[in-house]
UniProtKB/TrEMBL annotation:
Entry's transmembrane regions: none
Alphabetical list of Gene3D superfamilies matching this protein: Ribonuclease Z/Hydroxyacylglutathione hydrolase-like
SUPFAM superfamilies with a match to the protein in the record: Metallo-hydrolase/oxidoreductase
Coiled coil: none
Record-linked InterPro entries: Metallo-B-lactamas (IPR001279), NDM-1-like (IPR050855), RibonucZ/Hydroxyglut_hydro (IPR036866)
Keywords: Hydrolase
Protein name: MBL fold hydrolase
Organism placement in taxonomy: Bacteria, Bacillati, Bacillota, Clostridia, Lachnospirales
Family matches, as Pfam families: Lactamase_B
GO function terms (MF aspect): hydrolase activity
Amino acid sequence: MMKLVKLSDKVFYLPGVEELDRPFLYYIKGSNYSIAIDAGSCKSHVQEFYQELKNEGMKLPKYTIITHWHWDHTFGMPYVHGKTIASELTNNKLKEVSQWKWTLKEMKMREQTGEDMAFCNECICKVYKDVSQICVIPSYIEIDSITQLDLGGVTLSLIPRDSTHSRDALFVYFHEEKMLFVGDADCEDHYEENGTYNKKRLRSLIAFIEGIDFEIYLLGHDLPSNKEETLEYLNKKYQELISN
Ligand SMILES: [Zn+2]
Ligand SMILES: [Zn+2]
């Protein structure tokens, strides 16, 4: 079992589990209400997160903000407390995925049509002994432009935009503590770009990140980083792309 990590007085996270492709789940505590970032991959992922919050005497989140549509961030959505918030593009995709049938045969067929990937299905099978239990739902609240939330002493901007990882990224910026939550946004795209970076999308992402005044950078599958390290890493990836 993972333990909740305290990043500041208002920000906590449950670390991810690589073998299960479990992403980091974040919690931001306001004086009026709290929110979570990402729903996780399954019911027990949500339950373990909530148990940790309860152990620390914290309220369950009023909203769970979804960073992008991929299964490891969204299949826990039916089990979260309160309401979910996602971008319009994420919701369009979730509505599509909610129609998918969950049998090993249907999953194999989706790999052949390119709708889904073998890598994802392997991970899904590790998490779900019985894939027929999978339940995919769209979010309750949908946003298509920059949206602010005031949690009480905590101001968040939710910023939907393209990323190098998926078209439907939702970035979360915590103004007072200068934190930027990005989910998997700065990774490669496995669906549209064959697991590589697209030059134009990477350049656009770098410019976006450069333009935000943040100090701490929070990822879907890795430990917190900062602006300097992030830009150094992404600029290196960009240089590699243009020198090829
Ligand atoms: Zn992803
Ligand atoms: Zn992920």
